[in-house]
Design brief:
Oligomer: heterodimer
Number of strands of chain A: 8
Largest interface: A-B, 52 and 56 residues
Strand order of the largest sheet of chain B: 2-1-3-4
Largest sheet of chain A: 4 strands, parallel
Distance between the termini of chain B: 32 Å
Structural class of chain A: alpha/beta
Low-confidence stretches of chain B: 1-6
Helix content of chain A: 40-55%
Low-confidence stretches of chain A: none
Strand content of chain B: 5-15%
Largest sheet of chain B: 4 strands, parallel
Strand content of chain A: 5-15%
Shape of chain B: globular
Distance between the termini of chain A: 39 Å
Mean pLDDT of chain A: 96
CATH topology of one domain in chain A: Rossmann fold
Bound molecules: iron/sulfur cluster
Number of helices of chain A: 16
Chain lengths: 379, 436
């Protein structure tokens, strides 16, 4: 099997590897969002599993438990849980990322509890006192894992996990670098497949897969063709290729992203500090997510630069010609962030298309005309 | 629902106290304009951020933007602000309070002056903007977004509480410490803005006033257990204004003292809301439909009275330990205790503090049915209602219903649907009461 077919297989059969490991007696711990450190779970020899939804399945069972004005990504995940699709999760960990996810913890836990359930509180504010708070929350999390597993936490194992996950991050950045040439050597849809495939497997196996993929990409004929608009995508959860494919089939290259399921979750390394928790805190609490509040700067320009400077770097380095926002409906933090980010990018001369969607492949076709019109404008 | 009802938004109230609130609402915005003329600082604030007494002690005049949005809806003057925000790129499903606020700010910026005929004289440009993470996400994101329309110094604090399953003894110090640090950060910011240090004696004084007003408010709610009902929920949704927006002032204390006296008087003289009280309804949760408050009276025309509510209700009183000698630490403790008041009870029973509170209310107020209002654009007060209803169903067989609209956006409201649903709910109430 080539790495590409292996990746496609893992992408289409979500959770396949995690299910196998669970069947073999390993503990699989499912979690939402970007604020639960994989490294801590891995340091207990457990498998971290980033919970995903299913954009191609209707949400048919969740309505009996959760209101339709909740984020459809979260509702889709829960819909899968009540259908039994997540019965392979031994543990369930939820960070306080947003209002919906916080409520989801209680609803999920009471309807489909795992053997181990834990809520990790995460400050919205940033600053030294928030760091100390989050650190203490991580200590509670570690204590809960100790109680559940009967194992004693070993900081040396956490250091090893940090090294391993940093290696994975480095490989992913290497892969992302292959998107810099024009045309890019790897498509946005392939990137999505690889990231989703990696969400349910041990880091070392994912590293092997990424290495294999990079090798195959380098060996295949380099793409050629007329100049196409290079698109940067910003938003929240895209764990399906449908939308990225739509953009690429409309005649553009998706070259870089800032998504919960993309660069946002892996980009920055965990600093290898003497006390490994220090590194974890400084990295995870400073993830660029609209749900976190950067202290306001004195001027509007400074404030936008402070909040979005990293995106400015991304679009420059990856030579983006335009930006598409893909916002899952009812995500208040993204909905409030979008217009500010658009202002920031427009000042840089980048056109922006803001899309709000329902996290469903059945409605994606309706976006085609808007995407095409946007791309025509760029060319 | 008669033709003439449809044009009207407000409900007929039961108490004189509630009728006095309209003037207090007007005064909120007037006092902001006056304060700026006197050189005082006016701050955009979010309700229930736990910092009210600090602001009062520092002579900062609160300007509650959410209340302003509700006011616009009650005056049916919200569409122009909602539309403006949507033109500026804010989603139609985003918190409609936030949309009205941002739409208003945007319009004021474009015009360079107050939008014409703005309800109650409009919101002046604030000198400071103060968000928080208490209750919901838009509380700090909305104020961050305000930067697009004004340059006021902006600050936000976390207001955090533990999940119900936490061992409170293990997490208490951790939460109190963080809350205290968050308040201290806010105070340092405000001292810089005002150029004056916080006087802790004054803070103790505003805390005393804040607690006293809330104690009286709580007392009035306890009195409301008496049958028949003398103070209905529409009154509650008025008296929350002095409770939340005058917190830490003598005015609030006087208001609630009057309310307690009036409720007592009405009970003694059996001055009931409706002549023949058939059903006692609990407003179980969700922001009220400010655009259509007369629906309370419509229920009353069938002998159904909303007697108590689990929304915009004050926190039940808590006892901060005597060893706490610093007022900022006191506020941190009070926040923790307020938010964890029913955690132990929930752990021993349903696992859900909201369910526990509702069960207590059902028992204490002799409730016949529970009503919830799901607002399409408010996640924080809506998500979880179905779950709460499901869990309640394990402990009670009372009829429960969930109505859907929005707190201010009329586009999410269907009168025909509400009518049909009210009829069905009344039938369910009647069926349960009918002797077998
Ligand atoms: S980064 Fe994405 S997944 Fe993580 S908390 Fe934010 S919105 Fe949720
Ligand atoms: S997409 Fe938004 S609403 Fe949904 S889980 Fe992520 S942060 Fe929450």
């Amino acid at each position: 099997m080539t790495s590409i077919t292996q990746m496609e297989d893992l992408y289409t059969q979500r959770g396949k590897r995690a299910r196998e490991l669970h069947a073999a007696g390993q503990k699989v711990v499912g979690y939402f969002c970007c604020f639960v450190p994989d490294e801590i779970i891995a340091a207990f020899d457990m498998i971290p599993y980033r919970i995903q939804g299913c954009m191609s399945e209707p949400i048919d069972r969740a309505d009996a438990h959760i209101e339709p004005m909740a984020c459809p990504f979260a509702r889709s995940c829960f819909n899968m849980a009540i259908k039994g699709d997540y019965s392979f999760l031994d543990g369930f960990v939820v960070p306080h990322s947003c209002d919906t996810i916080e409520r989801m913890y209680h609803i999920w836990r009471e309807n489909t509890p795992a053997a181990f359930n834990h809520f990790l509180n995460v400050p919205h504010m940033m600053g030294p006192s928030s760091d100390a708070f989050y650190r203490k929350e991580l200590e509670f999390f570690i204590k809960a894992l100790e109680d559940w597993s009967g194992k004693t936490f070993d900081p040396a194992k956490l250091k090893d996990a940090i090294k391993l996950y940093n290696q994975r991050r480095a490989r992913l950045r290497e892969l992302y670098a292959l998107r810099k040439p024009d045309p890019p050597l790897v498509s946005g849809a392939e990137i999505t497949q690889l990231l989703v495939a990696g969400m349910g497997m041990p880091a070392d196996e994912h590293i092997e897969l990424i290495d294999g993929l990079i090798g195959e990409i380098m060996r295949r004929p380099q793409p050629k063709g007329p100049k196409q608009p290079r698109i940067f995508i910003w938003g929240n959860e895209i764990d399906d290729t449908a939308f990225i494919k739509l953009v690429e089939e409309s005649g553009a290259s998706v070259v870089m992203d800032d998504l919960c399921t993309g660069s946002r979750f892996f980009w920055d390394d965990v600093p290898e500090t003497a006390d490994p928790l220090d590194g974890i805190v400084s990295r995870y609490l400073h993830i660029h997510c609209p749900r976190s509040y950067k202290p306001a700067a004195e001027t509007r320009e400074d404030d936008l630069e402070n909040r979005f400077g990293y995106i400015g770097e991304f679009v420059k380095t990856w030579h983006a010609d335009g930006v598409i926002f893909y916002i899952i409906r009812y995500c208040d933090t993204c909905e409030l962030e979008g217009p500010d980010l658009r202002e920031y990018l427009n000042v840089k001369g980048l056109p922006v298309l803001m899309i709000e969607d329902d996290y469903s492949t059945s409605t994606i076709g309706q976006l085609r005309t808007r995407v095409q019109a946007f791309l025509e404008m760029i060319v | 629902m008669e033709e003439n009802d449809q044009a009207k938004t407000t409900a007929t109230k039961g108490t004189d106290a509630a009728r006095k609130v309209r003037a207090m609402v007007k005064n909120i915005y007037k006092s902001c304009h006056d304060a700026q003329a006197e050189g005082k600082k006016v701050a955009y604030i979010m309700v229930s951020s736990q910092y009210d007494e600090i602001l009062r002690a520092m002579d900062i005049v609160p300007l509650p933007t959410e209340n302003y949005a509700g006011l616009c809806a009650a005056k049916r003057d919200m569409d122009r602000f909602l539309t403006k925000a949507e033109e500026d790129g804010y989603s139609q499903v985003l918190c409609s309070y936030a949309r009205i606020g941002l739409g208003f700010d945007s319009m004021r910026k474009d015009l360079g002056c107050m939008p014409e005929n703005a309800p109650d004289g409009g919101m002046p440009l604030p000198d400071i903007i103060l968000g928080s993470s208490g209750v919901c996400d838009p509380r700090f994101k909305w104020f961050q977004a305000c930067g697009r329309f004004m340059t006021a110094p902006t600050y936000s604090i976390d207001v955090m509480h533990p999940a119900v399953h936490c061992d409170l003894n293990a997490v208490r110090d951790h939460y109190v410490r963080y809350q205290k640090e968050q308040f201290e950060g806010l105070i340092a910011f405000l001292e810089k803005q005002t150029g004056k240090p916080l006087n802790k004696e004054r803070l103790w004084e505003t805390i005393r006033l804040g607690d006293e007003a809330w104690r009286l408010w709580y007392e009035s709610d306890l009195l409301r257990m008496s049958k028949p009902c003398v103070m209905p929920s529409q009154d509650h949704f008025s008296v929350m204004v002095p409770a939340y927006y005058y917190s830490g002032t003598q005015e609030a204390v006087d208001f609630f003292q009057d309310l307690v006296n009036e409720v007592k008087y009405k009970i003694e003289n059996k001055l009931a809301v409706v002549k023949d009280e058939k059903y006692r309804i609990l407003y179980g949760g969700g922001l009220p439909p400010w655009h259509t408050m007369w629906f309370f009276n419509y229920f009353e025309s069938f002998g159904a009275v909303f007697v108590i509510e689990n929304q915009y209700r004050g926190f039940d009183p808590v006892e901060v330990p005597g060893h706490v000698k610093d007022p900022v630490e006191f506020l941190a403790w009070r926040t923790f205790l307020r938010y964890t008041k029913r955690h132990e009870q929930a752990r021993a029973n349903s696992g859900n503090p909201v369910v526990e509170r509702i069960l207590d209310l059902i028992k204490d107020y002799d409730i016949d049915g529970v009503f919830f209002h799901a607002c399409r654009s408010c996640r924080a007060t809506t998500i979880g209602q179905i779950h709460t209803k499901n869990t309640l169903g394990r402990y009670t067989d009372l009829p429960m219903t969930q109505f859907v609209s929005d707190m201010v956006d009329l586009r999410d409201y269907s009168e025909a649907q509400w009518k049909a649903q009210i009829e069905a709910f009344l039938e369910a109430l009647a069926a349960r009461k009918r002797p077998l």
